[in-house]
Design goal:
By secondary structure, the protein is α+β, with helices and mostly antiparallel strands. It folds into 3 domains: 114 residues, no CATH class; 115 residues, no CATH class; 160 residues, no CATH class. It has 14 helices and 12 strands. The strands form 3 sheets. Strands 1-2-4-5-3 form a 5-stranded antiparallel sheet, with helices on both faces. A hairpin with a 5-residue loop joins strand 9 and strand 10. The longest helix is centred in the last third of the chain and has 35 residues.
Length: 496
């Protein structure tokens, strides 16, 4: 690679240009050096003191530049080329493209070497970041399986994924987004498994916008998702390297962002909200049972309030007589209509849950206990709400915890179902269900239908939908992502 020329070669003028770029930033240091054997070989090294490994700079950059015996014929472009290849001792050295590229390398922890008489600059890798170590997953805990999660440093996250898939076809491509923040984004996929059309569409969407800063993958998710106004996620998010590796092996694409411990995956389908890492580390009987529980829990937490209000307000004849008398007795003296009572309790439950999440863990646990036990008992004793309503809301809260990926969607659609049920009874509930089904069936994720798994017409494709079949039965990858290279398990006797 030939050196790009964008400096004058006059050291005093060139260093002044760089100083102007970093004026008023005291963390950027300029250190002048002069070779011991050849005073004509001199220059500056430039680095950000809070981002570099000082030992690397001293041993691999400064010491060689001071002590190397430079031949007199080394001048200009030749001096820069041989310094890059033979003098500076770093695992990564190259020319900087222009002044903006020089500033970017300084700000990510590289060291810049600017030589007198050279119309270019050289960078050497000297990064050192203070980051959180590899820790247990906080949002996707499992009893079995790996216990590691991503952290905020993108190179660490890449290494965690690379350890899971030791194959040269696993590719990582970097993109820089954010005019001000200059955030590094990494696109990861397995060549031959990832769909080319999906990969091209992802790159197109990433290049279709400009933003000042990109501080988290949530920014990116909202910018590139298919249905920006839909409450449902069409882009997956996980903090577990094993989940990312598994999705890459199915033919999906991962998006890593520097500064965040979560990784996006595309395409993302509706069924994945009911899948958990534990499903694939437990016996398939138990995994299938717990997955079925999640489907039932989602139905209960969204539908129970609407059905209860619809029955006691419009369809009392459908309730057994003894149960109806018990409900009527419990509601005697309650000052609010049933629908208002339900809305107040659901709001109170969400307030308690939000308080428990935002407060420190010990205090959050105490607040949850006080809210659930003391406050619940008190409002029932004061005849503000009925005991049956407390039981119903508590059941909705417990069942909502079984599908944490849908927590935001549950709150929205539970309210919609409740309002329709309170307005039109069972018929209103049926209309709300129809609206829900029409909405999710209209969604796509990077060209893939959101309900693709649920509409699988092949027996092999239905083995990881409502149940989790044993591994020896799931011989093919999901056909919705890759229709050519779909075989992932082949018995040796089958190939004989």
């Amino acid at each position: 690679m030939s050196a790009p020329m964008f400096f004058t070669g006059d050291l005093s003028r060139d260093i002044e240009t760089v100083r102007e770029k970093f004026q008023f930033d005291d963390t950027v240091k300029f250190r002048k050096f002069e070779n011991h054997h050849n005073p004509n070989v001199c220059g500056y090294i430039i680095f950000t003191e809070v981002l570099v490994n000082n030992a690397v700079i001293d041993e691999n950059v400064v010491r060689p530049l001071l002590r190397f015996v430079f031949p007199k014929e080394w001048q200009g472009a030749k001096l820069a080329e041989l310094t890059k290849h033979r003098v500076v001792q770093a695992d990564e050295t190259d020319y900087v493209k222009d002044l903006d590229d020089l500033a970017l390398h300084v700000l990510i922890g590289d060291t810049i070497v600017l030589l007198n008489g050279c119309q270019c600059a050289i960078y050497a890798n000297s990064k050192r970041y203070s980051v959180r170590g590899i820790s247990l997953p906080e949002t996707e805990n499992t009893v079995n399986g790996p216990k590691e999660s991503f952290n905020e440093l993108i190179v660490n996250n890449i290494s965690l994924v690379r350890r899971k898939v030791l194959n040269p076809k696993l590719k990582f491509q970097f993109v820089t987004l954010g005019r001000v923040s200059k955030t590094r984004i990494c696109i990861s996929y397995i060549e031959g498994l990832a769909n080319e059309a999906t990969l091209n569409e992802l790159k197109r969407r990433l290049s279709s916008f400009e933003i000042d800063s990109l501080l988290d993958v949530t920014y990116l998710s909202e910018l590139i998702k298919d249905a920006p106004h839909s409450p449902f996620k069409t882009i997956g998010s996980t903090e577990r390297p094993d989940v990312v590796a598994a999705k890459l092996l199915e033919g999906r694409i991962a998006i890593l962002c520097d500064g965040t411990p979560f990784v996006l995956t595309v395409p993302f389908l509706f069924l994945e909200n009911f899948q958990a890492s534990e499903d694939y580390y437990s016996h398939y009987f138990y995994a299938s049972f717990t997955r079925a529980l999640r489907f039932v829990a989602f139905f209960l937490t969204v539908s129970l309030p609407a059905l209860y209000i619809a029955l006691i307000c419009y369809h009392k004849e459908m309730i057994p007589k003894n149960l109806l008398l018990s409900i009527a007795k419990s509601r005697s003296g309650v000052p609010f209509p049933a629908v208002v009572e339900m809305l107040l309790l659901l709001l109170l439950f969400d307030l308690i849950r939000e308080a428990g999440i935002r407060l420190p863990k010990p205090i959050g646990f105490t607040i949850s206990m006080v809210g659930a036990v003391v406050l619940g008992q008190s409002i029932v004793s004061a005849r503000i709400v009925s005991a049956e309503m407390i039981i119903l809301v508590a059941l909705c809260g417990i069942t909502s915890f079984l599908t944490p990926k849908l927590d935001q969607e549950i709150i929205i659609f539970r309210l919609i179902f409740l309002l329709f049920g309170a307005t039109l009874g069972i018929y209103g509930y049926a209309i709300a269900v129809l609206i829900f089904l029409l909405h999710i069936s209209s969604l796509h994720s990077f060209g893939i239908e959101y309900l693709s798994y649920l509409t699988a017409d092949k027996k092999q494709q239905a083995k990881d939908v409502f149940v989790r079949a044993p591994w020896w039965m799931m011989r093919t990858r999901p056909w919705v992502f890759q229709k050519t290279n779909i075989t992932r398990l082949k018995r040796r006797e089958d190939s004989k």
